Amino acid sequence: MDNLTATAPDEAAVLVRRVQAGDRGAFVALTRLYQKKVFVLAYSFVHDKEDALDLVQETFLKLYQNIGTYRPGHPFEAWLRQIARNLCIDHYRKHTLKRRSLESGRTVEELDLPDGRGGDAGEKDCDLKDILCRCVDKLAERQRTIFILRHYDQLRNEDIAATLGISLGTVKSLHFKAVRNLRALMGPYLGGEA
Hints:
71% of the residues lie in helices and 0% in strands.
C-alpha cells in the first residue's frame, strides 16, 4: 500500500493538532495525505475532472476554515469525508437543477440519450459506463451516496456507517435498495424489463 491509502490515524492526529496551532506546513502535509481520497470521492459524484478538482480545493479550504471544530478522538478521515460529501451533494443538487431546467425545454429527440444500437466494443463500454452513471444519478440521495462510497471509493460498510454517522444496518439496507433500484433502472438499457 502507498502512503495515500495507508494513512496512520496517529499521523493525521499529529498533523491536525499542528494545523490547529497555526502550522501551515502541517496543513500542506495533511492536504497531500488526503487529496487523492477526496478527489476519488468528488469524481465519483460529479464524473468531471475539473469539477472534482474544484471540489477538492473547496474541501480543503473548508477544512482549514473549520479545523478548530474538529474534535480529537473522532476519526479525522470520516470528518474530512463528511465535509467533501456535503460539498459534493451541494454541487450535485445545484447542477442537477440547472441541467433539468436546460433539458425541460427540449424534446426527447434533442436529449443526448443512448440509442441502444450496438457499436464496437469500446463504444459499448463507454455507453455502459454512461448508462450506469445516469442511473446512479437517478437513485435517491442516500442510496446514491452509499453506492458511491461502497463501489467507487471501495469503503467497507463499517467505514460508510462511521463516515455518514448512521447504523451499519441502515448502510446495508440502503445499499441493497440502491442495487435493486439500479437493476430496475438499467434493465431497459440492457435488454431486460423496466
